[in-house]
Amino acid sequence: MASVLPYVLWLLLFLIPAFSNSAQAYRNITLGSSLSTDDKFPYWASLSGEFAFGLKPFAQSGKNLFLVAIWFQNVPDNTIVWTANQGEPVMEGSKIELTDAGISLTDNRSNEIWSAKSIDNSQVTSAAMLDSGNFVLRSNESGIIWSSFTNPTDTMLPSQTLDRGSKFTSRVTQQNYSAGRFELRFQADGNLVFYPIAWPTEGTYNPYLASGTVDTGSLLVFNQSGEIYLTLKNGTLQDLGLASPSSVSDFYHIARFDFDGVFRRYTYPKRITDGRWPQSWSVSSYIPSNICTAIRSDSGSGACGFNSYCKLDQEQRPSCECPPGYVYLDPNNAFNGCGPNFTAQSCEKGGLGDEIKFQFEEIPSTDWPLGDYEHFQGVNEDWCRENCINDCLCAAAIIRDNNCWKKKYPLSNGKSDPSVGGKALIKVGSSSTANLNPLPPPPPANKKKENAWILIGSILLGSSVFLNCLLSLAICLVFYLSYHRKLVKNTPSVTNTFGLMNLRCFTYKEMEDASDGFKEEVGGGGCSTVYKGVIELDCRRVVIAIKRLDKVAEQSDMEFKTEVSAIGKTNHKNLVQLIGYCNEGSHRLLVYEFMTNGSLDSFLFGSLRPEWYHRVQIAFGIARGLTYLHEECNTQIIHCDVKPQNILLDDSYMARICDFGLAKLLKIDQTRTTTGIRGTRGYVAPEWFKSMAITAKVDVYGFGVVLLEIICCRKNVESMIEGDDHMAILSEWAYDCYKEGNLHLLVGNDEEAICDRRRLEKFITVAIWCIQEDPSLRPSMKKVTQMLEGAVEVSVPPDPASFMSAID
Which residue blocks in 741-797 are alpha helix, DSSP H? Predict the structure, then answer.
């Protein structure tokens, strides 16, 4: 017992300052209060102790520097979410003071270097660090007259909004909080636009991403539920694709416009579960998806600095790399560009004779676009090499599809990505680095042939008749194989026929090898079986799902490829992407990207109830995906089998609809016609049983049932619950609960859902509209999405009780 006492005393001493600061957090910060770098705790904490405002130690080059900042007090790395003084650190001896004019920051010589004051010069009466992460100045007359939320730097927090005319500015690097090379501006015209900056000015280059809400955008919102969206003037909401599977009750959330120009959503757990804190925040989502290829500008260096190129690393973050023979200008900042470590080719006397001192290094699928000074068409790589090596101005050449582009210093907008294609030829000094292998220009083609025939003639003349005959046969065989190889090489790929430009045509053997003989079955139904596999795609190992169609109706190759092409042309974040297909003999296979988190079925009906916020996001995703299939893709696609088993979840638990388009492949007509029943018991629309016309409204019905299942986390059709036969049909019971005002019964003890009663009631009302027996009463999926998002009012639905009679 005595041995424990010292540790207890040490713990008490450690906690005394925390209790002291916690006590201060319960009061407003009064006039005259100050913080100094000499203070033991130079910050003001929020009421909960989660956030702090003050002078945060900032180690840089061994100097005692401090940042005036707001940071997470409860996160181990004290993540900074806001900085004053344009992110510039201050010296030891600096001081923050609250006066009736506002907050004033002075240096160690008492010179004011930054201040925060009200716009209308209202007198400040107090300040506060709020639990939301917002630091505010207050006035007795006007309330809050200044806040950090309305003067953002690079980070957004839940409950924060961004008005027109405001902006986020990226940092220089991860650890340098000064203004960097990118800005996210919510312009006065209502458009949210991402810009590269002509640093160190405030001028901009061409934007690389925009919301497209000119004259319609109203407010950028990060609400308390963790949703990030734009509100439009007409009341609708525009999703930005920054969803997160983690709830705000269990995780801290931030959205940060990072130093590399990417807007990322991060989460960090509020409580540890395995005895230790994570080393860093987790990325939930981000835009744009590829910053390297997104930026295209006539001026500026691009995503990376001059003479470097951008490529995504394994974590899908941009990495700036120097070409062979080049080195970083700043070893501590790879984004600052590169310079050659060899002497450039001389242009004296036109550079003639100097070309022997240089050679080429190749980088596949790399380019520095929009900076060409010469472009040649219909030429081969040999010609391009020779032309560049003899040109003293040519720093690099790009060869692609018999086109040759010549570049000169500095190289700009560099990017490396499989979508670029071709190759870059980098001209470097022969002795610039020890590991460079000289690659002299190959001899002209006619010279090659001449040398070859001389060699053949010499051998023939110096050999016996038998050997001559044998050698002649070998030469014929070589020429035949060479001709055959050229023929195969010049034969168009099947992938580029029948309009399937984005799809790969796989052989059955490739799919058999990829799946290890179709060994691991991961799903299936009455018409197909799904197997897991792995393929090499664009130099990456990609996990795939191979769907073998077991019951494909008789149809020609052209019909099959036409329907596969329609599926392949779909492109939406809430649809599972088709990668390719196999159409070999009787084998009809579809190859999809693999969804690691399985189906919505197993997610909803497992032993643990998923979080309410997460279920809401899944419902939004399904609605948007179906809206795209019905109204936004080139050819309308009716799914005909909307159910949780056909909703998959990706790495971020985003809903992704699968099996769309199979109705036509299986010869189930998707027009207004009568046809055989397709679907699953419990999700089938009544018109299937009444010989009525089948339209997109069958998907609306299926979505309504799935929406109820998402809300209640139970299946629509189950065995009797506690002897109550009525409760076995969820859709019937849901309407009874709605009519009697007992919505809480549907979600049981789900406190999150009960606290969000307005949304709960709206979702149930929308679901009831969707499951109306009369298809004409059901809204379209577009209107369903608008009702869920709050853009359209939801009226009281009629009683759909009779719709089950057709099934009975």
Answer: 744-747, 751-755, 757-770, 781-789
What Cα–Cα distance (Å) separates residue 629 from each residue in 47, 417, 593?
A: 48, 29, 18
pLDDT at 82: 97
Active-site residue identified among 260, 367, 391, 641: 641
State pTM to two decimals.
Answer: 0.55
Can you list the domains of the chain with their CATH numbers? 26-151 (2.90.10.10), 152-288 (2.90.10.10), 309-429 (no CATH), 499-593 (3.30.200.20), 605-806 (1.10.510.10)
- Four-residue CA torsion sign, 364, 367, 373, 379: positive
> DSSP readout, 532-599?
EEEEEETTEEEEEEEEEESSPPS--HHHHHHHHHHHHT---TTBPPEEEEEEETTEEEEEEE--TT-B
Point out which residues pair with 528 in neighbouring strands: 549
Separation between Cα atoms, residue 782 and residue 624, nearest integer Å? 8
CA distance 403 to 389: 16
Contacts of 229 (CB under 8 A, 6+ apart): 220, 221, 237, 238, 239, 240
CA distance 794 to 271: 38
- Does pLDDT of 669 surpass 50? no
* Residue 570 C-alpha from the chain's centroid: 18
Sheet of 521-524, strand order: 504-505, 578-584, 587-593, 540-549, 528-537, 521-524
| Cα gap 660→652, rounded to integer Å | 21
Residue type, 748: G
Written as one letter, the residue type at 92 is E
For the segment 190-216, what is each residue's pLDDT rounded down to a tens digit? 999 999 998 778 789 999 999 999 999
How far is the C-alpha of 13 from the C-alpha of 92, rounded, in Å? Answer: 26
Q: Give the C-alpha separation, 20 to 168, whole Å.
A: 35
pLDDT score recorded for residue 62:
55
591 close to 546: Cβ distance less than 8 angstroms? yes
Would you call 330 a catalytic residue per the annotation?
no
